[in-house]
């Protein structure tokens, strides 16, 4: 299955809404009213980005229901996505290094989700203790 690619900001918006209890069904019904409601969740986000994404209904539905790949994921973006999407906190749930994440423990099904969202500039490396590292693949 080929996943739709979205920007980091679009991923932030989707995962921020999900973290506040917004369901996939509600995300699929994006309209002016929902955007007005959602703007109270995070006043600095441009929720109209979801309306733009939703113009291609099939692609948007796939993004919401099947998942997505982030076009380019920065290091800070990776840390933020681990917090937003996977509820993982630096120094508590993983080690944060200069350009990598270490000793991250994720359940098998969640690892698949993590692999899906990562842009090509990141590589997952498994450790013998069951944890993973996420390393920059850009040299």
Description:
This protein folds into two domains: about 70 residues, no CATH class; about 45 residues, no CATH class. The chain is globular and about 50 Å long. It is an alpha+beta fold and about 140 residues long. Strands 3-4-6-5 form a four-stranded antiparallel beta sheet, with no helix packed on it. It has a two-stranded parallel ribbon with strand order 1-2. The protein is built from seven helices and six strands, in the order E-H-H-H-H-H-E-H-E-E-H-E-E. Helix 1 runs parallel beside helix 6.
In short:
This protein is of the alpha+beta class. The protein has helices at residues 8-19, 24-28, 32-38, 48-54, 57-66, 75-86, 108-117; strands at 4-6, 68-70, 95-96, 100-104, 122-126, 132-136.
Q: How would you classify the helix and strand content by structural class?
A: alpha+beta
Uncertain residue ranges: none
The proportion of residues forming helix, as a percent range, comes to: 40-55%
Question: Total number of β-strand segments?
Answer: 6
Fraction of residues in β-strands: 15-25%
Could you tell me how far the N terminus lies from the C terminus, measured between alpha carbons in angstroms? Answer: 28 Å
Mean pLDDT: 95
Give the helix tally. Answer: 7
Shape: globular
Order of helices and strands: EHHHHHEHEEHEE
Rg, Å, rounded: 16 Å
Spatial order of strands in the largest sheet: 3-4-6-5
Q: Into how many domains do the coordinates divide?
A: 2
Major sheet: size, sense and barrel closure? 4 strands, antiparallel
